[in-house]
Amino acid sequence: NAGVTQTPKFRILKIGQSMTLQCTQDMNHNYMYWYRQDPGMGLKLIYYSVGAGITDKGEVPNGYNVSRSTTEDFPLRLELAAPSQTSVYFCASSHRLTGNNQPQHFGDGTRLSIL
Amino acid sequence: ILNVEQSPQSLHVQEGDSTNFTCSFPSSNFYALHWYRWETAKSPEALFVMTLNGDEKKKGRISATLNTKEGYSYLYIKGSQPEDSATYLCAQRGHFGNEKLTFGTGTRLTIIP
Q1: In a mutagenesis test of the A interface, which of B95, B99, B101 is the best target, namely the one with the most A β-carbons within 10 Å?
Q2: Is B10 exposed, middle or buried (0-12, 13-18, 19+ CB in 10 A)?
Q3: Distance (Å, whole) CA B74 – CA B64
């Protein structure tokens, strides 16, 4: 079990460029999430998905898009990179069981700088 | 929106001492409280998921308690070791947020050898 795998680990983008942050999990989890982590701000939810074909906005969705075509994959797309999107991005997943009290499993993060 | 607050923001503890810190959350709309341990340059790892008022969970030297009526949870570390140095995050899930968690900003713990 690899768990939650994020690629790339690091990336530098120019303002206005686009890119996709990849996230895949091999635990057959229904729920997947994208967070960004800024200094002193904790983890902020960007988008989440409760299953293939279903996505929803979190707290800070502006400037991002997601898709969930399979259970395993949940890519995050930046269309027009802006300096405000410089951050560390974490993907997470969790299992849907009775009671829904399952912890989230996190990937190792993608450090993204927009210059 | 749920506001989850953690205190203190940072903490330095001598090796061997015990310590504790707090997570406060709105008691209304409570469903579950999560604790995560986050080492520098790594990803957050789940410690506990707690749901019942009065619940207490333990993993080795780390334990947590939950008071849903007054809206707080304590995390305790007994006999701190250098490997306990990390940021400890708590997160609340409300009833009407599906699986969404609202995270606090964390308590950064440094153990002084």
Answers
A1: B99
A2: exposed
A3: 5
For B88, nearest residue in chain A (alpha carbons): A42
Smallest Cβ distance to B100: which of A42, A58, A90?
A58
Residue A83 token pair: 């300096």
B89 contact A CB<8A: yes
Rg of chain B's alpha carbons, rounded to an integer?
Answer: 14
Q: What is the pLDDT of residue B30?
A: 82
Report whether A110 contacts A8 (CB < 8 A): yes
Cα B55 from chain centroid (whole Å): 14
Spatial neighbors of A17 by CB under 8 A, at least 6 apart, are A80, A81
Distance from CA of B89 to the nearest CA of A (A): 8
Closest CB to A101 among B43, B44, B49: B49
Token couple for B63: 């334990």
For residue A95 the two structure tokens come to 């299992």
- Label residue A74 exposed, middle or buried (CB < 10 Å: 0-12, 13-18, 19+): buried
The mean-pLDDT minimum among A16-20, A92-96, B78-82 falls in: A92-96
Q: Which residues pair with B60 in a beta bridge?
A: none
A59 in contact with B at a CB cutoff of 8 Å? yes
Residues of chain B with pLDDT under 70: 1-2, 95-99
**B32 touches A89 (CB < 8 A):** no
d(C-alpha B26, C-alpha B28), whole Å: 5
